[in-house]
Amino acid sequence: IDEDQFNKILALIESGKKEGAKLCTGGERLGDQGYFIKPTVFADVKDHMRIAKEEIFGPVMQILKFSDLDEVIHRANETEYGLGAGIMTQNLDKANYLSQGIRAGSVWINCYDNFDAAAPFGGYKMSGNGREKGEYALEAYTEVKSIITKVMQKNS
After folding, report:
1. Where are the domains of the chain?
2. Inter-CA distances, 51 with 79, 89, 145, Å
3. Domain 3-141's class?
4. Tens digit of each residue's pLDDT (9 = 90 or more) over 32-66
5. How far apart, in whole angstroms, are the C-alpha atoms of residue 96 and residue 31?
6. What is the pLDDT of residues 104-151, one digit of tens each?
């Protein structure tokens, strides 16, 4: 993390407080050297808040209430981004239902940010197009070429 990202994260944390999210823990610099931020958790987050709409790329968790799984899918797909989603549950049927409906390049169930070199990686929407890793990435390094040669026959 560099100073620019550090300041961006702190600005987003401040916006969460100003927009009415409940700061449960963290929300400030950790120590007096470097660019460390205490793990931060916000509750009572609403969809219109910056901390719900923007990719923070920092130690900030937002808790949003929901009524049913279709609402979760709808709200997740209304965002501009679609890099990844994490689902924590004991009910794998619900997790699979969510993972099929959410438009995200990677969906982790009962884990987060785990990767395998053979699994394609990439996002949807503003989180990027294309895939890295796995067989899908090989296409980016492949140049297709056609060569057609007419071979003259001796007795023609």
Report:
1. 3-141
2. 12, 23, 47
3. alpha beta
4. 999 999 999 999 999 999 999 998 999 999 999 99
5. 41
6. 888 989 998 887 766 666 666 665 555 566 666 667 667 666 666 677
